[in-house]
Amino acid sequence: MTLPSACTRAVVVCACLASLLLTACGAPAATVTPSASAVTSATPAAQVAPFAGTGFRTNIPVGWQAQATNQSTTSTASGTGTVLMFLAAPDHGVLLAKTTPQPVADDQLAPYLASITPAGAVDVSPAEPVDIDGVSGVLITYTGGTGSATQENEDMVVNQAGNTYEIALSTAPANFTTDSAALQEVLNSWTWA
């Protein structure tokens, strides 16, 4: 028995490969049906919206909306000063950032917060340090209002670039945990411009 030569074997292998390629190219393509877990939702994922205020930038938490800062917004926001950001939560919580009418000295930030805490506020915390993008300030929490109008509040002040910024959250007690987490998102994304 004689064995085929190397040349003959190469021709046979090439013929087999050519035959396989022609068969594969002419065969109908397989259809793949995606599984239910691979189907994507028609609703796009909610995204955080950027906010550029005077002297700072931050992100608006998902679900919250920026409100126009007009004269009625300014008068609605407690106290005086210039409102720079007014955010409203779906649960009616309010987050605002404003500058005070006049800068407050660093060593007077805690007394300033005490002076603007509404009369009748209860559970007023002692002033605690806060850091907003590398700038130190102070914050307090308190409960204010009466009956169904009772609000949980977190109020803080910091000095930056010759201005005193006040950042405050006010919301219903039942929503305080959720809304204070949104405030933390704002503070985590805060950068001074």
- Poorly predicted runs: 7-41
CATH architecture: 3-Layer(aba) Sandwich
Give me the secondary-structure category. alpha+beta
Q: What does the radius of gyration come to?
A: 32 Å
Fourth-level CATH superfamily: Mog1/PsbP, alpha/beta/alpha sandwich
What is the CATH C level class, in words?
Alpha Beta
Strand order of the largest sheet: 3-4-5-9-8-7-6
How many distinct beta strands? 10
- Strand-residue proportion: 25-35%
Kindly describe this structure:
This protein is α+β, with helices and mostly antiparallel strands and 193 residues long. It has a single domain, classed as Protein Transport Mog1p, Chain A. The chain is 25% helix and 32% strand. The chain is built from four helices and ten strands. It has a seven-stranded antiparallel β-sheet with strand order 3-4-5-9-8-7-6. It has a three-stranded antiparallel β-sheet with strand order 1-2-10. The radius of gyration is 32 Å and the shape is globular. 24% of the residues are buried.
